[in-house]
Amino acid sequence: MSPLKIRELARRAGLSRAALLHYESLGLLTPARRDANGYRLYGPEQIERLRTIRAYREAGLSIPAIQSLLANKPEASMQLLEDRLLDLDREISVLREQQITLARLLAQATLELPGKVKDKDAWVALMRSAGFSEEDMKRWHAVFEAQAPEAHRKFLESLGLGAVEVKAIRGWARGEG
User: Fold this and answer.
1) Which of 60, 68, 76, 170 has the most crowded CB, counting CB atoms within 10 A?
2) What are the residue boundaries of the HTH merR-type domain, all occurrences included (predicted)?
3) φ and ψ of 165, to 5 deg
């Protein structure tokens, strides 16, 4: 494979020329050499390094973290990757809690604006489209029941559920069944 000029490397990588120059200015990616006209040339080693940089960026790692990872310190590399994974877990937990809160607020709004969500099937479809799994929906009911039991009951009734089904849902939401 012949060396690539910066524009060709940028095109193949789906990045801008400016991004590659930025990576160079930070010491993340340096050309293999320059040709007689001063054009930067990149070989297989630089292409592989760019793939690695892109993978780290896609994983949400910061430039300083990537610089450290590329410095080839295995212990530090493992720690940075583990830290990022833990950060993502925390972010996902926060987003899940926000999602549950928004769904509860939407349920309360549904009580105030009847007709938006017609029945149980429409509500379940809405929750699924928001990314809720069956387990997420059960957790949502448990949180709603714990925080606002009367509003939860009214919401379930607004979906057209009968007294037996409302009682059953509220029971397992409280951990009774």
Assistant:
1) 170
2) 1-72
3) -70, -40
